Amino acid sequence: PPERKRFYQNVSISQGEGGFEINLDHRKLKTPQAKLFTVPSEALAIAVATEWDSQKDTIKFYTMHLTTLCNTALDNPTQRNKTQLIRAAVKFLETDTVCYRVEEPPALAELQKNEWDPVVAWAEKRYNVAIGSSTSILGPNIPASTKETFVSHLASYNMWALQGIEYVITQLKSLILSMGLIDRHITVEKAVLLSRLEEEYQIQRWGSVEWAHDYDLCELRARAAAGTLFVHLCSESSAVKHKLLQD
Question: Reduced to 3 states, what is the DSSP secondary structure of residue 39?
């Protein structure tokens, strides 16, 4: 939506019957489908409230990634159930960024091997699966058992967290990088760099359009970070929430 003038002075949170609510002055925040904006954890409510409180003279909705994710979880505009969300996430394995390799130029092929192989090896060990990589345009042949393992793992997350996981995967174009990020094996900066490896290689060779590259990079980091935070704040473990608030 377009920017609109900030119409409130104070932002607060309160606990209602369905969870935690966001108050803009004395108005309760609603979703695009006019549902009461209610989130499952106090930590997430604080994070969303901070987004609203950070807006200046105008409300820039495109900067409010956590609010957007909450709206998606509440309204579920695509009307998908948990099984459909999980299957959509696992389907990314078939086109996972880190599994597609080049043979030419040799320098890029070497860079992909050095940077992507370790994270693929981590995922194979972490989840006890076979993933591999391929230079074929068809991509690697991912075993059915690997897909089912990821289906089982993702099933341990609730619907809210799954919305966040799919959001991160969509940003990074990689299930493997996304799980590495959510499992805290790699940082946001590292995950984004690995997802843009070929682009960064080309920029180092030919240069970049002034400001445009930096803007895209910062935007992708912001979205990946917001999605990852959303997953953790929607997780069932109160210990995880407490630690994140301390961090």
Answer: strand
Ramachandran angles phi, psi of 24, nearest 5° = -105, 100
Question: Number of C-alpha atoms within 13 angstroms, CB side, residue 78?
Answer: 9
β-partners of residue 176 are none
In this structure, how many other beta carbons lie within 10 angstroms of the beta carbon of residue 204?
11
Q: Which residue has the tokens 């630690």?
A: 243
Domain limits, CATH 3.30.2180.10, in the chain: 11-75
Q: What residue has token string 């078939």?
A: 94
Superfamily the domain 11-75 falls into: ATP12-like (3.30.2180.10)
Indicate the residue type of 242. H
Distance, in Å, from the CA atom of 153 to the CA atom of 49, rounded to the nearest integer, reads: 31
Question: What's the number of CA atoms in the CB half-sphere (13 Å) around residue 200?
Answer: 13
- The H or E element spanning position 59 is strand 58-59
**pLDDT tens-digit readout, 80-118:** 999 999 999 999 998 999 999 999 999 999 999 999 999
Can you tell me the distance from the alpha carbon of 110 to that of 91, in angstroms, rounded to the nearest whole number? 27
Sorting pLDDT into bands at 50, 70 and 90, what band is 244? Answer: very low
The three-class DSSP label of residue 24 is: strand
Collapsing DSSP to helix, strand or coil, 65 comes out as helix
Burial grade of 141 (CB within 10 A; 0-12, 13-18, 19 or more) = exposed
* Nearest partner of 20 among 76, 65, 74, 57, judged by Cα: 74
Whether pTM exceeds 0.85: yes
